[in-house]
Design goal:
mainly beta; Beta-galactosidase, Chain A, domain 5; eight-stranded antiparallel sheet; 20 strands; 6% helix; binds 6-O-phosphono-alpha-D-glucopyranose
């Protein structure tokens, strides 16, 4: 008799690829999920990615335990967007205002070519308010797409259009905070032998010497005319981040180290050991847009096991995408 046969439990539906919900302090955020398990979170505050997890649920970005999710302080970690000014290179506040404005969902994004079948993406838009126009008198539309690829890659595409009647110029960076096991075990490949401006030496211009970039003290450098691919090798985690970028010739490398860490209210004293910023940017040569023109800048992040390259931390293999 089959009277006692228990029906199999109903399958719970898979979580949606895009979910709009509330984050810290009730701030609106969007969660992206890919079917194999990777995920990302984007706050409308700052248009800022604050989480990127692989399909094992491991966090790949650094966000400070002391981050303040409250206007007007930018969120410390994830991927703040520096626009229309990087650092203090102009009359605006440090890193411009895009990172501490509330962005909107863009329900009518002008079409972007998609080369992926993923539905896990969101389009945001930032337009200047009347107050913004007083401090930076240029009309623009900034469209940001954040997308997760089927393999868990995180892609950010920025499109900035001049909707003004006169040209304007800006500098830009994706201020990406990577999570690393131990900064002293990390190497960056792809920037060796390049020229850089050293923020710790009055932006003086120097040429990088030696093989790879390793870390044993504070670093704050703007590498110039960098290749489209940069790798961060985390020896202890046996993980390599590969950064691919387009439209962004420069790359900032920043770690505040112990003294600066202590001086930052929204950053833990020892957290510098577990983060590294590598920031695809356009700084040395500001971008100029004529009325009606649009600029596009992209960064694509992947995290691969270092053993992916046959167990060798061979930078050339990583950079060639073996
Ligand atoms: O503290 P923030 O305004 O977020 O800036 C954090 C850092 O951003 C960049 O990496 C700059 O090159 C650094 O000079 C700066 O200290």
């Amino acid at each position: 008799m089959s009277a006692h046969k228990v029906a199999p439990p109903p399958h719970s539906p898979p979580p949606p690829p895009v979910e709009h919900c509330k984050g810290v302090n009730g701030l609106p955020k969007v969660v992206l999920r890919e079917s194999r398990g990777s995920s990302a979170e984007v706050y409308l505050y700052g248009g800022q990615v604050t989480s990127w997890k692989n399909d094992h649920g491991e966090e790949l970005l650094f966000v400070s335990s002391k981050a303040i999710f409250k206007l007007p302080k930018a969120i410390r970690g994830g991927i703040p967007i520096c626009f229309p000014q990087f650092s203090n290179l102009g009359s605006l506040e440090q890193h411009g205002f895009a990172r501490n404005r509330v962005w909107n969902i863009d329900n009518d994004p002008a079409s972007l070519p998609t080369n992926s079948t993923s539905k896990a993406y969101v389009d945001l838009i930032l337009k200047p308010s009347d107050e913004d126009l007083k401090i930076w008198p240029h009309s623009f539309e900034f469209r940001l797409r954040v997308a997760l690829g089927p393999g868990g890659d995180l892609m950010l595409t920025s499109r900035i259009r001049n909707t003004d009647a006169k040209p304007f110029s800006f500098t830009f960076a994706y201020h990406t905070y990577f999570s690393v096991s131990d900064i002293s075990e990390v190497r960056v490949e792809g920037l060796e032998t390049l020229d850089y401006l050293d923020n710790l030496q009055n932006k003086g211009r120097f040429t990088e010497q030696g093989d790879a970039i390793t870390f044993e003290s504070e670093v704050d450098k703007i590498y110039l005319s960098t290749p489209t691919k940069i790798a961060i090798l985390d020896h202890e985690k046996k993980r390599t981040f590969v950064i691919r970028k387009d439209g962004l010739p420069d790359a900032v490398v920043w770690n505040p180290w112990d003294k600066k860490a202590k001086a930052m209210a929204d950053f833990g004293d020892d957290e510098y050991k577990h983060m590294l910023c590598v920031e695809p940017a356009s700084i040395e040569k500001p971008i100029t847009l004529k009325p009606g023109e649009e600029w596009k800048g992209r960064q694509e992040l992947s995290a691969v096991p270092s053993s992916y390259c046959s167990g060798q931390l061979d930078p050339q293999k990583v950079l060639q995408g073996c």
